[in-house]
């Protein structure tokens, strides 16, 4: 059986017409992985790095959706859909302070 993300990568790279390319696959959590970075050549695909589903930004949506009372884990899609209707100018993130290395803390 072909690994889930490798199948996505192959279906994108091989018909692309490129001799060589970086291939990024991002989805829910096929095979427990949410993202795969691969290098495609005429010889095939070499997986360079995979990211486990526990590091998926989608899990953040799931947690927020549950706290908002939108339902169980299947409701993260509802929240993602609502995001397009938001007004980012209405809210500020002054309560977050950026730290070196990309992390943040609450003020």
UniProtKB/TrEMBL annotation:
Cross-referenced InterPro entries: Carbtransf_dom, NodU/CmcH_Carbamoyltrnsfr
Domain of life: Bacteria
Keywords noted in UniProt: Transferase
Residues covered by the Carbamoyltransferase domain: 2-96
MF GO annotations: transferase activity
Gene3D superfamilies the record matches: 3.30.420.40
Residues spanning the signal sequence: none
PANTHER family: NODULATION PROTEIN U
Protein name per UniProt: Carbamoyltransferase-like protein
Organism: Streptomyces capillispiralis
Lineage: Bacteria, Bacillati, Actinomycetota, Actinomycetes, Kitasatosporales
